[in-house]
Design a protein that fits this description.
About 65% of the residues lie in helices and about 5% in strands. It has 15 helices and six strands. The radius of gyration is 20 Å and the shape is globular. Helix 4 (about 75-85) crosses helix 12. A four-stranded mixed beta sheet has the order 2-1-3-4, with no helix packed on it. It has one domain (about 40-370). By secondary structure, it is of the alpha+beta class.
């Protein structure tokens, strides 16, 4: 769902060190018989699962209540951020502010501008048709500068999922600062910074600040958790990838996720809602992230999952329009049939977004990511 997610990773490891090559999500291990290459398939599978859950969750607000919404919202966006942290380069701690702006913040900002222009254009044309008169697009433009959706919907153009981009930018800056401090003063100081910033989201009750500054500490925490997990992945990989251990890990973390979600109550990062307790929110988010990884690692690699994984950014930015179309269709009267229809509709929307993403790929690569 992020620029980092679109990058792939290669780990070249020998007996003494791990060398990171920023090209593809492949683990390369050196054995007595030569070099063995294995793609980290759980990354693609996990992102495919998570983008489906994002689409599914938005049916709750457009179509009608869905079962398990509180559990889904406890971890689906945080898990994306965890993966973002996992995919950060090992040398991220040595990257200066210029490198951060060039490699992450700049592409995020350009992506936000690109998709915001699409959203503003759709809203503006629709408003002109609805009112049968020329109206100003400036309210939608100013709303995009504000960068907050939330309960009062500061994103006038009605593509509320775009709130994620400003949130991601603010979260990434917070993570970089914590990692930078860790490299200078020690890891413990980085943890202090991250937890202090996350606590702002749980303690602040004032007006929403531009670009989700007051809640971005939760995103910084999840990116930081993913980055730290990556540093120890060699010793922890068996808990995620080995079938028996992964199943046990999945069961434990799913039970934790469900239990904590019920205990903590409804959450919604976009609405600055974190349940009864901030610590419980982070524990549920981590439990869901690990559960997703463990389950995804047991699913065989497919070209479909890889394609969805590479295009989660575009799917995230544009799916809401298809959700509204699907929600306008006749609904089953039976509640169970309605829930089944929602799940099938969410899956269909993810698939329908793929050709749109492929059409936009050349433009995104050339003008957003600056890839030739």
């Amino acid at each position: 769902m992020t620029i980092v997610d679109i990058r792939q990773i290669m780990l070249c490891q020998d007996q003494t060190k791990i060398i990171r090559i920023e090209t593809t999500s492949i683990v390369t291990s050196k054995t007595m018989l030569g070099t063995k290459m294995q793609r980290i398939t759980w990354i693609d599978n996990a992102k495919a699962i998570l983008i489906f859950l994002v689409v599914l969750g938005h049916f709750h607000y457009v179509y009608g209540p869905i079962y398990g919404k509180s559990i889904i919202y406890a971890f689906h966006v945080p898990a994306f951020l965890f993966i973002t942290g996992f995919l950060l380069p090992n040398d991220f701690r040595f990257i200066g502010i210029q490198g951060l702006l060039r490699r992450w913040i700049g592409p995020y900002l350009r992506a936000y501008v690109f998709f915001s222009l699409i959203a503003i254009t759709i809203w503006w044309v629709g408003s002109i048709v609805a009112h049968r008169s020329l109206i100003s697009p400036l309210p939608a433009v100013w709303g995009s500068f504000y960068g907050v959706a939330g309960q009062k919907n500061g994103l006038v153009h009605q593509n509320q999922p775009l709130w994620y981009f400003p949130y991601l930018v603010s979260s990434m800056i917070g993570t970089w600062l914590a990692v930078y401090i860790s490299s200078r003063l020690g890891t413990i100081f980085g943890w202090v910074v991250i937890l202090a910033y996350a606590s702002v989201a749980f303690l602040y009750h004032g007006p929403r600040l531009p670009w989700d500054i007051e809640i971005a500490g939760t995103g910084s925490a999840m990116i930081f958790f993913g980055y730290q997990f990556r540093q120890h992945y060699e010793s922890l990989a068996s808990f995620v990838e080995a079938p028996r251990a992964a199943i046990a890990t999945s069961i434990v973390t799913i039970l934790l996720l469900v239990g904590i979600s019920i205990l903590n109550g409804p959450t919604n990062i976009n609405g600055a809602e974190f349940g009864k307790n901030g610590l419980l929110f982070l524990l549920a988010a981590l439990s869901g992230s690990v559960a997703t990884m463990s389950l995804a690692a047991q699913i065989p690699a497919t070209r479909l999952a890889r394609s969805i994984s590479f295009n989660t950014l575009t799917i995230f930015a544009l799916h809401i329009y298809l959700v509204r179309v699907a929600s306008a269709l006749p609904q089953p009267s039976d509640e169970i049939a309605k829930q089944i229809a929602i799940w099938f509709s969410a899956a269909a929307i993810v698939l329908l977004c793929l050709p749109i993403a492929l059409l936009l790929q050349p433009v995104l690569r050339r003008w957003v990511f600056f890839h030739s």
